[in-house]
Amino acid sequence: MIVSRRQFIRTGVAGSLLLAFSGWLNAAGERRLSSDERAMLAAIAAALLDGALPPAGDERSRLVALTVDGIARTIAGLSVASQREIGELFGLLVLAPGRMVLAGVGKPWREAGVGDVSAFLESWRTSRLALLQGAYAALHDLTFGAWYARPDTWEAIAYPGPPRGYF
Q: Which of 17, 44, 145, 161 is 20 to 30 A from 94 via CA?
């Protein structure tokens, strides 16, 4: 696909405005996850952890919610600069135009299917753009870090837990 100079400039300006708007939404100090961000992270966690989660139901919802809570705790422990960067990413993905253009997910996060979210994540994982690959890696690491931080998930990977009695 050949992009004209005018299309390139329009896209750049639109992207800059969207990024500035999301930065404005997420400015100032330690942040808490909004309900829209929690819904987005729940959809992403459900897609990334699909094989490890039980089939649809209350237990699946509970485990996804615990994972989102873990992600929130992790983000709260990061530097303000890192929180701001994550907030910009989340701001872009939470807004409908960003969700549709950047992620290719047409439905709101609460309604998005695992297949749609998995396709978006795979497109970012294999993207030619290092920025999207980095964003995928951040979402992946936050999700799996929160999942495996809980001792009840260790048995599935035969992890006996941290060494005891050495400290």
A: 145
Calculate ∠ Cα 103-35-90, nearest 5°.
Answer: 35
**3-state SS record for the chain:** CCCCHHHHHHHHHHHHHHHHHHHHHCCCCCCCCCHHHHHHHHHHHHHHCCCCCCCCCHHHHHHHHHHHHHHHHHHHCCCHHHHHHHHHHHHHHHCHHHHHHHHCCCCCHHHCCHHHHHHHHHHHHCCCCHHHHHHHHHHHHHHHHHHHCCHHHCHHHCCCCCCCCCC
| pLDDT of 27 | 46
Sequence-distant (6+) residues with CB within 8 A of 160 are 154
Reported as a single tens digit per residue, the pLDDT across 5-52 is 666 555 554 555 455 555 544 444 445 899 999 999 999 999 999 999
Dihedral sign (CA 144, 146, 147, 148)? positive
Calculate mean pLDDT across residues 140-162. Answer: 91
Q: Residue 127 is which amino acid?
A: S
87 touches 26 (CB < 8 A): yes
